[in-house]
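Q: Hi! First time doing this. I have a protein sequence and I read that you can turn it into a structure. Is that right? Here it is:
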Amino acid sequence: MAHSLAASFSPAAARRQVTNVISSRSSVSFQSYRMTSVSISSRPSSLRFKICCSAKKETVDKVCSIVKQQLALPDGTALTGESKFAELGADSLDTVEIVMGLEEAFNITVDETSAQDIATVQDAADLIEKLMLEAPPKVV
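A: Yes, that's right. Below is the predicted 3D structure, encoded as structure tokens:
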């Protein structure tokens, strides 16, 4: 279940110390001399929307092509950004080979931590675009 976060601010009393109060696992308040009082609480709520930045269609298509090649999938196999490597029959070694293929095709380097977070075609495409934006320009 998702949690929402609420914060309230009020003038602090003239105290010369910082007071932190944890009233439960979902509520914390802070007070400090010459600062405002901050109270933060978390409560269960329904997930209403998700914000994400998706990779370009061209990047997703290229990742799909590489995944098909690495997993030797039949030509008629439909892949989308939501396609999960595990559901396509990929084991951990296959996933490593997919990442290596992506590194070669896009001329990037994926660190081990980021590679472990890749579960779908979209995950891979989003990471590739992020890495390409962060990479310094290449001198030709």
